[in-house]
Specification:
Layout (H helix, E strand, L loop, with lengths): L2 H22 L3 E6 L5 E6 H49 L12 H11 L15 H14 L16 H8 L4 H8 L10 H4 L4 H15 L2 H8 L8 H13 L6 H11 L3 H13 L6 H14 L4 H10 L3 H8 L8 H8 L7 H5 L1 H26 L1
Antiparallel strand pairs: 1-2
Helix pairs in contact: 1-2, 2-3, 8-10, 10-12, 11-13, 12-14, 13-14
C-alpha cells in the first residue's frame, strides 16, 4: 500500500470515530496526573476515544515510511547492479576484459562471474533490445560489416570485427594504410583458440577415420554408397592406402563413384597415383591399372595420373598409344620422358617438378633423422 493511501484511510477512519463520539456525547473528561509532576488535561470524550487510534496511526506511518525508504534504497541498488551488468556486457561485446565491480546483490555478483566466462559476440540478425547502448553497439557492428568505418567506436584487437573495421578505416586513405603496416596485428581472435578446429568437415573426417580404423569392408562400402559421403582428398588417400595394405576391399566402380563425388584436381590424382605406385606388386598391379584406366575414361583430371602409373610400371607403348588419342601438344611431359628415359631422370620430375622437389626434401629430412637415431643408438 502506498503511504498516501494509508494516510487518507487513517484520517477518514479517525474522523468517523470522532464524529460518532461527538454524536453520542459532547461531555468532557479531565485527566489528572499525580506521578512525578502534577497536571490535568481536559478534552472532549470523543477526542479521548480517538487518541489511541491517532497514536497507532503515527507509529504505523513511521514504520511504513521506514519500509518504503528501505525498498526505495533497495530499488536504487538493484538498478545500479543492472546498469553494471549492462556495462559489463558492453565491454565484453567490444572484446575488452571486464572490470572488477562491487554488486549490492549476490545474484548479480554470480551473474557477472557467469558472463565473464562467456564470449559475447554480436548477432547482427537479431531484433532490437530497446536498450539504447546495446542497440547502438549492434548498429555499429552492422555498419562495420557493411563496410562503414567506425572511428569513435573502439574495438579490442581480439574482436572478430576489428580487422574488418581497420579495412574500412584505411579505405581510400593512403596515410592510414601506411600506418597500419607499422602495426602488429597478430592477435588471436575471441574464441579462436577454443573454436579454431571446430568445423563441420573435421567431424566428417573423424567419422571416416573411425570407419577406416575398424577395417570393415562392408561398413566402408555402405559409407561410400551414401548420397553425401563428405569425402576429401585426404580421406580418399587414406582409403586407397587401406586398400593397398589389404585392410579393406573396394570395387573399381565404387572408387570411381567416390572420386567423382569430390572433384579432385590433377595434382591430387597424381598424388594418389604416386601412393599406389609405392605398393604395387604382381598381385595388385592389374587391379590398380584398371582402376586408373577407368578413372581416365570418366574423369579428365585423372588422365595424367594414369600416364604416370603406366610409365612407372614400364608400359611405355601403352602410354604412347594413349597419348595418340589426344592432340599433339597435350601431355608433352610424357613425350619428353620417353625421349630422355635413358638419361635416368626421375619420372615425377617431368610430371610435377615442385612436387618432386617437395618429396625429395621430405626424403632427405627422413634420412637425416634416421642417421641421428642410428648414431644415438651406437653411442
Amino acid at each position: 500500500m502506498k503511504i498516501r493511501y494509508f494516510v487518507i484511510f487513517a484520517i477518514i477512519y479517525i474522523a468517523l470515530i470522532m464524529s460518532y463520539g461527538f454524536y453520542i456525547t459532547t461531555d468532557k473528561y479531565t485527566l489528572v496526573n499525580s506521578l512525578l509532576f502534577k497536571f490535568n488535561f481536559t478534552l472532549p470524550i470523543a477526542i479521548w476515544l480517538c487518541l489511541p487510534a491517532i497514536l497507532l496511526f503515527i507509529f504505523a506511518w513511521f514504520f511504513v515510511s521506514l519500509v518504503a525508504l528501505y525498498h526505495k534504497v533497495k530499488h536504487i541498488s538493484f538498478n545500479r547492479d543492472i546498469d553494471k551488468i549492462l556495462t559489463q556486457i558492453q565491454e565484453q561485446m567490444a572484446g575488452d576484459k571486464p572490470k572488477e565491480r562491487i554488486f549490492s546483490f549476490n545474484q548479480f555478483k554470480v551473474l557477472s562471474k557467469v558472463i565473464k566466462r562467456l564470449y559475447l559476440l554480436p548477432n547482427t540478425q537479431s531484433s532490437i533490445s530497446n536498450n539504447e547502448k546495446i542497440d547502438s553497439i549492434c548498429s555499429s557492428f552492422i555498419d562495420i560489416q557493411n563496410g562503414v568505418a567506425q572511428l569513435k567506436f573502439k574495438l579490442n584487437p581480439s574482436h572478430p570485427l576489428y580487422n574488418q573495421n581497420l579495412k574500412n578505416i584505411i579505405k581510400n586513405d593512403i596515410q592510414k594504410a601506411f600506418d597500419i603496416l607499422k602495426q602488429d596485428l597478430k592477435v588471436d581472435l575471441i574464441g579462436y583458440t577454443l573454436y579454431k578446429d571446430s568445423n563441420i568437415q573435421s567431424v566428417y573426417d573423424k567419422a571416416w577415420d573411425i570407419i577406416l580404423d575398424n577395417k570393415n569392408s562392408k561398413t566402408l562400402q555402405k559409407a561410400l554408397n551414401l548420397n553425401q559421403t563428405h569425402l576429401t582428398f585426404h580421406i580418399m588417400l587414406k582409403i586407397i592406402k587401406a586398400c593397398l595394405k589389404g585392410e579393406v576391399d573396394v570395387s573399381k566402380d565404387l572408387l570411381l563413384h567416390s572420386c567423382k563425388s569430390i572433384e579432385l584436381n590433377e595434382r591430387e590424382y597424381l598424388k594418389l597415383a604416386i601412393e599406389v605406385c609405392k605398393s604395387l606388386n604382381e598381385n595388385n598391379i592389374n587391379f590398380w591399372l584398371s582402376v586408373f584406366e577407368l578413372l581416365s575414361k570418366n574423369i579428365e583430371q585423372s588422365v595424367l595420373s594414369y600416364f604416370y602409373i603406366l610409365l612407372e610400371v614400364g608400359k611405355t607403348s601403352e602410354a604412347m598409344d594413349l597419348k595418340q588419342q589426344y592432340p599433339k601438344d597435350d601431355f608433352l611431359p610424357i613425350s619428353a620422358f620417353i625421349s630422355l628415359k635413358d638419361k635416368g631422370y626421375p619420372l615425377l620430375l617431368f610430371f610435377d617438378p615442385l612436387l618432386y622437389r617437395e618429396n625429395k626434401l621430405e626424403k632427405n629430412n627422413l634420412n637425416i633423422e634416421n642417421i641421428k637415431q642410428i648414431d644415438y643408438i651406437k653411442h
